[in-house]
Design brief:
Oligomer: single chain
Radius of gyration: 15 Å
Number of helices: 3
Number of strands: 0
Order of helices and strands: HHH
Distance between the termini: 23 Å
Helix content: over 70%
Strand content: under 5%
Length: about 90
């Protein structure tokens, strides 16, 4: 499967943000409820950043950083939800 250029770029930015936080406890060691609370908080941070201004939001670095945080927490939750499937298949 060939990945879209936009998806690759987005994933690379997600990974860069994750690497900045490698010193923290891994999401794999967190319970899903903690990750869900953090996701809600990150969505709130996105909308707070969005409310700061109305000029060309598509070029706003702060908005893009917050949406990457949202995406990373979505990925972490997806990963936690997928653990059982991977174990069943013997992928881990």
């Amino acid at each position: 499967m060939k990945l879209r250029k936009d998806l690759i770029e987005f994933a690379e930015v997600m990974e860069a943000e994750l690497k900045l936080n490698d010193y923290k406890v891994s999401w794999k060691e967190q319970d899903i409820e903690f990750l869900e609370r953090r996701l809600v908080g990150e969505v709130g941070e996105y909308f707070a950043e969005r409310a700061k201004g109305e000029t060309m939001p598509e070029s706003d670095i702060g908005l893009r950083k917050e949406i990457i945080d949202v995406a990373n927490f979505c990925m972490m939750i997806w990963d936690k939800l997928s653990e059982a499937d991977r174990q069943e298949r013997g992928d881990e």
